[in-house]
TrEMBL record, chain A:
<keyword id="KW-0067">ATP-binding</keyword>
<comment type="similarity">
    <text>Belongs to the ABC transporter superfamily.</text>
</comment>
<dbReference type="InterPro" id="IPR003439">
    <property type="entry name" value="ABC_transporter-like_ATP-bd"/>
</dbReference>
<keyword id="KW-0547">Nucleotide-binding</keyword>
<dbReference type="InterPro" id="IPR003593">
    <property type="entry name" value="AAA+_ATPase"/>
</dbReference>
<dbReference type="InterPro" id="IPR027417">
    <property type="entry name" value="P-loop_NTPase"/>
</dbReference>
<dbReference type="InterPro" id="IPR017871">
    <property type="entry name" value="ABC_transporter-like_CS"/>
</dbReference>
<dbReference type="GO" id="GO:0005524">
    <property type="term" value="F:ATP binding"/>
</dbReference>
<feature type="domain" description="ABC transporter">
    <location>
        <begin position="6"/>
        <end position="231"/>
    </location>
</feature>
<dbReference type="Pfam" id="PF00005">
    <property type="entry name" value="ABC_tran"/>
</dbReference>
<keyword id="KW-0813">Transport</keyword>
<dbReference type="GO" id="GO:0016887">
    <property type="term" value="F:ATP hydrolysis activity"/>
</dbReference>
<protein>
    <submittedName>
        <fullName>ABC superfamily ATP binding cassette transporter, ABC protein</fullName>
    </submittedName>
</protein>
Length: 297, 258
């Protein structure tokens, strides 16, 4: 097996008497986008801070096969991060802010220029950060996380304060970086946002990993319904129920599609019985609901 | 480590306060030299020159603020996590801050030294021979200046090591600044009481505040009767305390959660 880009084992953290993390373990495979989901106060930020050696925690952190601890974290050379809200020196311009943290290699200015273009920051990058808006600051934080082309990027609620356009651009940038092999660990409240990005999901509740799954699996768990309008709804419902379908409503007829049920089969049965179908609608259950169900389980 | 030092210097040089400080010192030094000319006290001109036109006292305040700010501003701007989540340990971060501040203090002293010598050349009142001696001194004027300035520099760093320690412990710049300034003035306020106590109980002479007298003692040898310490003891004691406070600061800082 490939070495995981990030491996977290039995991470445990207490703030005074309050235990914030209980034996949290998970892996991020190289080149994957991993989503960290959990309610407010579930422990997402705390997990990320522990990975980044910002806080002391019990347990083992391995980054690209290299052990990383609170005191010794040379492995972070290959990690970029944005935790909570971006840290910014108000007296520097955006460009200088990046010059400050960009590793001094020959292509330093080139890297900075690229990220400025990718995040469309050119119009204000040479202004002092003091005057930036919330979204501009957020982009600044993301730019800082990406400027050294790290192999692992940790983003805590990266879409905070971004408008829909910027959100879309960031999503595309993340996907582009992923295509070139970068691993992402992203926490977000905006589940639909993670739905579009993450392949792997780690669901956190009260400081515990309650589920480690893939987005595909989660979407599969999601319930699908077929809503039918016919010339004789009641009869149609009866016919479907007799044939073993899960009918959940009568007018219009609503059928829950299990993994073996197909739309074609439903329609075929009804036409065989001479029911004429006026309208068919496919309804997806709520993605957020399935995540909430996971947490409740 | 080299990269951390580069970052610290970058931040220092991009701060407006750094340049305001340098500009202020230029005006202060020349201004005081001018005042010395206007209030024509020719007998004191040599002493005034040896004392670098009081610039070291202003450097103390500027450096206290700069050192306290170099740690507390990172917490204030929420940038400490950017600094920490690099490949370097917390100790390396703190050491790079010390080195940047050391560089800044040397810059200020270099500037003031240059200005002090420039004043000597420019103003007729200060154009005395630097090889002359002050009454009661065994060495030439320029040597007096060098001794006084070096001793000032050492005691400055004794204060700064405390400021760093407090800033690393509390994250609060204001508290650290106050500690430095109070430390600076405490000397004047409590020294009489301290000297009396030292007379009664000898070991008390080893307390760090007594070592702040070093910079005065090198120009006023009589003070050793009160401090009960020789200049050499003063010098090594200063270095010892600086090392101790810095190690303590290192310990606290390396435990710091962000
Ligand atoms: N510095 C701290 N001191 C005390 N308790 C803390 C501290 N930081 C976090 N906690 C506690 O740890 C728990 C997890 O907090 P954390 O910030 O990790 O949550 P989160 O999942 O990031 O929440 P959110 O979605 O609101 O950002 C919370 O109960 C919080 O009260
Ligand atoms: Mg959080």
């Amino acid at each position: 097996m490939e070495t995981a880009a990030l491996s977290v084992r039995r991470l445990t953290k207490s703030f005074g008497r309050k235990q914030a993390l209980h034996h949290v373990s998970f892996d991020c495979q190289p080149g994957h986008i991993v989503g960290l989901i959990g309610a407010n106060g579930a422990g997402k930020t705390t997990i990320m801070k522990a990975i980044l050696s910002l806080i002391k925690a019990k347990g083992d952190i391995t980054i690209n096969g290299q052990v990383s601890t609170f005191r010794h974290h040379a492995a972070l050379a290959d990690v970029g991060a944005l935790i909570e809200y971006p840290g910014i020196y108000p007296y520097l311009s955006g460009r200088n802010q990046m010059k400050l943290f960009a590793t001094p290699t020959a292509d330093k200015n080139q890297r900075i220029q690229t990220i400025i273009q990718e995040l469309h920051m050119a119009p204000y990058i040479d202004r002092r950060v003091k005057g930036y808006s919330l979204g501009m600051r957020q982009k600044m934080g993301i730019a800082l996380a990406l400027v050294n082309n790290p192999s692992l990027v940790i983003l805590d609620e990266p879409m905070n304060g971004l408008d829909p356009q910027a959100t879309k651009e960031l999503r595309e940038l993340i996907q582009k970086k992923q295509a070139s092999g970068t691993t992402f660990l992203i926490s977000s409240h905006i589940l639909s946002e993670l739905q579009k990005l993450a392949e792997d999901l780690i669901v956190i509740d009260h400081g515990r990993v309650v589920q480690q799954t893939t987005m595909r699996e989660l979407l599969a768990r999601n319930q699908h319904f077929l809503s039918l309008t016919t010339d004789q709804d009641l009869r149609a419902a009866g016919i479907l129920a007799e044939n073993g379908y899960l009918v959940t409503a009568h007018a219009p007829v609503r059928v829950q599609l299990r993994s073996t049920d197909t739309v074609a089969a439903v329609l075929k049965i009804l036409t065989t019985y001479g029911v004429s179908i006026e309208d068919v609608q496919h309804e997806d259950g709520d993605f957020e609901q399935s995540v909430l169900d996971l947490i409740r389980e | 480590m080299k990269n951390l030092y580069r970052q610290e210097m970058f931040k220092l040089l991009k701060r407006r306060g750094t340049w305001w400080g340098l500009g202020f010192l230029v005006l202060q030094n020349i201004g005081f030299a001018w005042l010395g000319v206007v209030y024509h006290t020719h007998t004191l001109a040599k002493e005034f020159w040896v004392a670098g036109f009081a610039s070291p006292a202003f450097i103390v305040f500027m450096m206290i603020a700069a050192c306290a700010g170099s740690i507390s501003s990172e917490f204030e701007y929420n940038t400490m996590k950017n600094v920490i989540t690099q490949a370097y340990s917390r100790s390396a971060v703190l050491v790079s801050k010390w080195l940047a501040m050391l560089t800044y203090s040397l810059m200020l002293y270099g500037l003031v030294g240059g200005l002090t010598f420039a004043n000597h050349i420019v103003w007729p009142d200060y154009r005395f021979a630097l090889t002359a001696t002050l009454p009661g001194s065994q060495q030439a004027l320029w040597q007096d200046w060098l001794t006084a300035t070096s001793a000032n520099f050492v005691t400055l760093w004794l204060l700064l090591s405390v400021v760093f320690l407090v800033a690393a412990m509390l994250k609060k710049g204001l508290v650290a600044t106050l500690c430095g300034i109070v430390g600076y003035f405490a000397l004047g306020v409590i020294s009489r009481l301290m000297f009396q106590l030292i007379d009664k109980w000898e070991p008390l002479k080893w307390n760090p505040i007594n070592f702040l007298n070093y910079s005065v003692q090198v120009t006023m040898p009589l003070l050793t009767k009160l401090t009960h310490l020789t200049n050499t003891q003063m010098f090594w004691g200063n270095l010892g305390y600086i090392g101790l406070f810095m190690l303590l600061g290192l310990y606290f800082f390396s435990q710091k959660e962000v």
